[in-house]
């Protein structure tokens, strides 16, 4: 490598003196080494390391050239010093006219031989300066100053030297003056040269730092350029490059982590979504889109926790497991302190405990009446009373013992102890027979045509099942008058997507009562009543059925649902149509894919009262038709298309005292032709659409 090539690599012009930039070059070398060590990618690191090796090689060659130039300049300076030896050395003894003794100044003591000899100090090594003249210039200035001092000393030596010395003195003073002006100009030139060198170096360094995305260091480099050259276009362009680079880096960073957060959020991985959003907000806390996403994640998390602990609490209330309810409330309070659901659950807990006490009191009254009627033989009234007592207080030991005694007056068949299967037990069953199933799963798909009692074990431990495409789990025909089903789970296996689907239990003209039963996973309805049948459900669960939870159709068909839950069905929670009638009271109708309760039957005697109808995908309650009846004291909350819709064909149904709040669209919707003043007793509040929507026309935009 030649000196010219080395200067080109180091960014120096051909006429630049390397001795004046070595300090800056050493600083540049350290910066380049730091950039190589901190490079964000391997490719950039290899590139910087290659440039560093080339830089160090060129700098080494320049240091050698600088040393050569320094020695040459030092030799030139020393040549101006009287008595200096060629090559820059100093004699051990002064020679020339300065060796002659100086005559004493007037009034000065004469020199003596004992005077201390002059000790020559070696020349100091050249020192690095920033804005002052370089070592060679300093030595030259010192030599000129020494010459002027020596000339003055010679002028006062006496008449011995005469006019020649006077002329020499004048000449030295003249030369000294010219030398001082030259030194000043030299210093100014060196300052400007140093400034231009630093500007060139800083421009290259700043650009490399921008490329390495080391924004703060790059900003400092361009700030220094601005200080050296105010209004510099280079500094302006550099700051613009930093701003654009930072914006690009921010866009890339934010885009990546926002995408990760959004994907995790949509997949329901809320913790991962929160972590990804935190990556952005830690670096860019004002990022609006991510702040909004974080709020949505927080809402979803809160909703998840509400559903989880709310479900556990309500299941505990249903099962009267108060420690379970209390534990759910504590968990919810810890996760979401101050959440409105807490107050609601605590009210439900208090109401559940109060109801349990009332039920227990009523159960003991019924048991006492049954005990008085007990004569040791079958008595249908005593059996009915004690059965009702057991349903009200299923864990009361005394009532259970009384029930076993009175029920024993009927024939009891136990499965599998007495007979192997339910089908075998039903084959020869007579009215009033009692069939008791043990724990486990029992294949069904059976028709019941006698007034029998079928009992399972509490807490869902007895399951009757059938394949979804074969038949209903149980079919109760016209002769099944007075059938009682207790503590049974009816479940369909698989799914039938056809137009005709079997329900879990079908009542075809029979009359049944289901107590503490579950109807779930059917392709059709959970419990279906047709052909003028009647089904009464108390404390039952209708869950995840392909159509409705509980339904009735046809003239004379009737359902009665009390204190039951119809949730997460793919149709309606309850549906009544084509002449059927219903009485639905104190039920929870929640999270169904269509309406909570659909009434589309011009029949008398409708009662829909004191139900919680919430979070259904369409309307909470839809009154499409009705001859007479009452819809009152219901809570319609959080339903998506509206809280309660009344069609003109249902104008004869009384709708009063309902709380219609916080629905995701309109609250109370009245079809065109209905008078709004008739519905003033209903409480309408905080619905996202209109609290009251009048003159609605369906099929036409209002």
Can you offer a commentary on this structure?
There is one protein chain. The strands form four sheets. An eleven-stranded parallel beta sheet has the order 3-4-7-10-13-16-19-22-25-28-31. The protein has 702 residues and is α/β, with parallel strands linked by helices. It is elongated and about 145 Å long. The longest helix is centred in the first third of the chain and has 50 residues, at 162-211. Strand 3, helix 14 and strand 4 (434-437) form a beta-alpha-beta unit. The chain contains 14 helices and 35 strands. Helix 7 runs parallel beside helix 9.
Topology summary:
Blueprint: H1 3-10, H2 22-37, H3 42-79, E1 84-85, E2 89-90, H4 135-155, H5 162-211, H6 215-228, H7 233-266, H8 270-283, H9 288-319, H10 322-335, H11 340-373, H12 380-392, H13 397-407, E3 412-415, H14 422-427, E4 434-437, E5 440-443, E6 446-448, E7 453-455, E8 462-467, E9 474-476, E10 481-486, E11 489-493, E12 505-508, E13 511-515, E14 518-520, E15 527-530, E16 534-538, E17 541-543, E18 550-553, E19 558-562, E20 565-567, E21 574-577, E22 581-585, E23 588-590, E24 597-600, E25 606-609, E26 612-614, E27 619-625, E28 629-632, E29 635-637, E30 642-646, E31 654-656, E32 659-661, E33 666-671, E34 683-685, E35 692-696
Parallel strand pairs: 3-4, 4-7, 5-8, 6-9, 7-10, 8-11, 9-12, 10-13, 11-14, 12-15, 13-16, 14-17, 15-18, 16-19, 17-20, 18-21, 19-22, 20-23, 21-24, 22-25, 23-26, 24-27, 25-28, 26-29, 27-30, 28-31, 29-32, 30-33, 32-34, 33-35
Antiparallel strand pairs: 1-2
Helix pairs in contact: 1-3, 2-3, 2-5, 3-4, 4-5, 5-6, 5-7, 6-7, 7-8, 7-9, 8-9, 9-10, 9-11, 10-11, 11-12, 12-13
């Amino acid at each position: 490598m030649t000196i010219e090539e080395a200067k080109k690599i180091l960014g120096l012009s051909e006429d630049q003196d390397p001795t004046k930039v070595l300090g800056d070059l050493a600083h540049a070398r350290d910066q380049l080494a730091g950039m190589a060590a901190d490079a964000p990618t391997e490719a950039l690191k290899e590139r910087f390391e290659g440039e560093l090796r080339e830089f160090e090689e060129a700098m080494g060659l320049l240091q050698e050239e600088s040393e050569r130039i320094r020695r040459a300049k030092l030799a030139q300076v020393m040549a101006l010093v009287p008595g200096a030896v060629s090559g820059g050395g100093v004699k051990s003894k002064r020679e020339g006219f300065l060796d002659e003794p100086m005559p004493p100044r007037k009034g000065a003591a004469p020199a003596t031989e004992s005077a201390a000899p002059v000790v020559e100090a070696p020349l100091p090594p050249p020192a690095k300066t920033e804005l002052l003249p370089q070592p060679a210039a300093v030595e030259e200035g010192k030599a000129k100053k020494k010459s002027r001092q020596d000339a003055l000393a010679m002028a006062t030596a006496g008449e011995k030297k005469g006019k020649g010395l006077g002329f020499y003195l004048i000449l030295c003073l003249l030369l000294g003056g010219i030398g001082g002006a030259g030194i000043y100009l030299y210093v100014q030139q060196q300052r400007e040269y140093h400034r231009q060198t630093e500007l060139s170096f800083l421009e290259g360094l700043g650009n490399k730092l921008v490329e390495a995305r080391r924004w703060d260091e790059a900003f400092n480099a361009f700030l220094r350029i601005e200080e050296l050259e105010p209004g510099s276009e280079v500094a302006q362009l550099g700051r613009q490059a930093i701003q654009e680079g930072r914006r690009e880096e921010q866009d890339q960073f934010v885009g990546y982590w926002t995408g990760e957060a959004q994907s995790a959020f949509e997949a329901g991985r809320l913790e991962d979504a929160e972590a990804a959003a935190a990556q952005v907000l830690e670096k860019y806390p004002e990022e609006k889109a991510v702040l909004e996403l974080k709020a949505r994640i927080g809402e979803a998390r809160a909703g998840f926790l509400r559903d989880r602990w709310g479900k556990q609490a309500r299941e505990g209330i249903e099962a009267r497991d108060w420690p379970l309810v209390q534990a759910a409330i504590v968990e919810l309070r810890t996760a979401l302190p101050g959440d409105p659901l807490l107050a609601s659950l605590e009210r439900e807990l208090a109401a559940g405990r109060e109801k349990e006490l009332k039920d227990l009191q009523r159960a003991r009254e019924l048991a006492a009446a049954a005990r008085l009627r007990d004569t040791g033989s079958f008595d249908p009234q005593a059996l009915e009373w004690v059965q009702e007592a057991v349903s009200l207080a299923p864990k009361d030991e005394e009532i259970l013992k009384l029930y076993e005694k009175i029920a024993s007056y009927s024939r009891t068949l136990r499965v599998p102890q007495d007979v192997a299967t339910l089908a075998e037990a039903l084959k020869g069953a007579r009215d009033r027979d009692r069939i008791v199933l043990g724990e486990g799963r029992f294949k069904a798909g059976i028709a019941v045509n006698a007034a029998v009692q079928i009992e399972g074990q509490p807490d869902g431990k007895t399951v009757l099942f059938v394949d979804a495409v074969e038949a209903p789990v149980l079919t109760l025909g016209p002769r099944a008058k007075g059938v009682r089903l207790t503590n049974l789970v009816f479940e369909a296996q698989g799914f039938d997507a056809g137009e005709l689907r079997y329900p879990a239990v079908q009542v075809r003209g029979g009359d049944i009562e289901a107590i503490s039963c579950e109807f779930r996973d059917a392709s059709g309805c959970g419990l279906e009543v047709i052909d003028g049948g009647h089904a009464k459900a108390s404390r039952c669960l209708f869950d995840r059925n392909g159509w409705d939870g509980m339904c009735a159709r046809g003239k004379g068909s009737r359902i009665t649902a009390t204190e039951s839950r119809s949730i997460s069905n793919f149709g309606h929670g309850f549906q009544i149509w084509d002449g059927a009638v219903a009485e639905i009271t104190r039920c929870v109708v929640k999270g169904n894919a269509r309406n909570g309760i659909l009434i589309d039957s011009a029949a008398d005697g409708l009662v829909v009262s004191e139900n919680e109808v919430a979070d259904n995908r369409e309307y909470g309650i839809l009154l499409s038709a009705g001859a007479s009846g009452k819809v009152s004291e219901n809570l319609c909350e959080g339903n998506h298309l509206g809280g309660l819709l009344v069609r003109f064909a249902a104008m004869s149904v009384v709708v009063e005292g309902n709380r219609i709040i916080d629905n995701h669209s309109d609250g109370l919707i009245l079809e065109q032709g209905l008078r709004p003043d008739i519905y003033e007793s209903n409480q309408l509040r905080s619905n996202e659409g209109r609290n009251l929507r009048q003159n609605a026309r369906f099929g036409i935009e209002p």
